[in-house]
Amino acid sequence: MLKGLALTPPAIGRIAIGKVVEKNGKRLPEKDDSFTITSQVQNKDGWVNHPINETLRKDPNAKLRAIAVRLLFDDPDLNLRANYSLFDRQTGRPMCVGNGDTCRRSLAAGVQTLPYPSPEACELAKGGFCKPYGRLNVRIGQDDELGSFVFRTTGFNSIRTLAVRLSYLSAVSGGHLSTLPLELRLRGKSTTQSHRAPIYYVDLTVARWIGHHLAAIDQHELQKELTMKKSAKTEIVIAAWAGRTGPAYWGDREYSGYDNQSSAFWVSFRGAQPGERHLYLNDDCRAVGDIGLYVYVTVDGTVSIDLRLHDAGSMTLLESVQRIKVLKRMFAKGKAYPFGNYERETNVHNELTKAVDALGIKRAMVYHGVNEPETFELVGIVLKRISDCVDERLNRMKLRQAA
């Protein structure tokens, strides 16, 4: 590979908010109040429009002020490249490029790195020819997944707005910018420097048909598909702790009956996937971990088992939707068992066995302590320990009633 080449994203077109007009025999740039999407070909009349320019306009004479786009990269700095640039007026080649701290300048002795605080403090930049120069690469449509349309600007308002938007969107999406459905919008404002005349700049927002939270869900689901997180099936297991008996595993609550007639407790679930250790800590497995069986039992043999969210604290909308999806999936799978009903003349062991059988649970995950690998055992062994503990509790209640 040749050294010193400027590697940039492949561009198949341009996005402009201006045009070239002829005044007094001179071709001069003129700002516009709408987008124009062009190819990279020029003729005597200017840039040739890209076919997608007409496709995006509902009416040939309508102004294009919003474009549905997606970004190429998750890193904001790869999508938007911005610096101070001074170009040679004859060749169009960059003579000096800086970031407000240092610059790389083309001199007779070669390219050198020099201090560069700002254009105002630079001798070479006198005359106002050194300006902020930003380039935003976006995808439009589905024809070319790697091809991009580039929006070039020397406008401070556009560069600042796009940089801030990219940082905010990266934060709310968890760093998955490339999967967010976005819109490039043209906005206007008036300032003192513009003498109250309208000026136009470019903004980047979440698509109008979807809110920030729903966009996060959309990109999260797409990201899961892209990284093939769904390739491994999550196994639902019962959580247990080595050396403990009864239902009080892994911080689950055990409710004693103060009336000596009933008691309730939780049996917690965990999600596990085949692979390396701690693979159960992914999003799907964490959702399973917030679900459990709430068991209510009385001394006269009435048992009710319900499938519920268990100790689910503060959650985002994305986390809530994911847990509801898992809960609905588990209800559909365990429809053979009457969750939430009161079963008479039975016992805890029988009902728990029926419930976990309906859910297809075969194993229990046993925790042995911090930094210790988990082990698995048959779910029937764990259910037997739980039911023996509960039966002893109910027997103590009967004795207290008799006394």
Question: How far apart are the first and last residues' alpha carbons, in Å?
Answer: 91 Å
- As a percent range, the share of strand residues is 35-45%
Low-confidence stretches: 249-253
How many beta strands in the DSSP annotation? 20
String of helices and strands: EEEHEHEEEEEEHEEHEEEHEEHEHEEH
Using the alpha-carbon principal axes, give the shape: elongated
Number of helical elements: 8
* Structural class category: alpha+beta
The helix fraction, in percent, is 25-40%
* Mean pLDDT, all residues: 82
Gyration radius over CA: 32 Å
Please outline the major beta sheet: 12 strands, mixed
List the main descriptive attributes of the protein structure presented here.
403 residues, alpha+beta, 25% helix, eight-stranded mixed β-sheet
Give structural notes.
The protein has 403 residues and is of the alpha+beta class. The protein has 8 helices and 20 strands. The strands form 2 sheets. Strands 1, 2, 3, 4, 5, 6, 7, 8, 9, 10, 11 and 12 form a 12-stranded mixed beta sheet that branches. Strand 9 and strand 10 (148-153) form a beta hairpin. The longest helix has 24 residues, at 379-402. It starts with 10 loop residues before the first strand and ends with a helix.
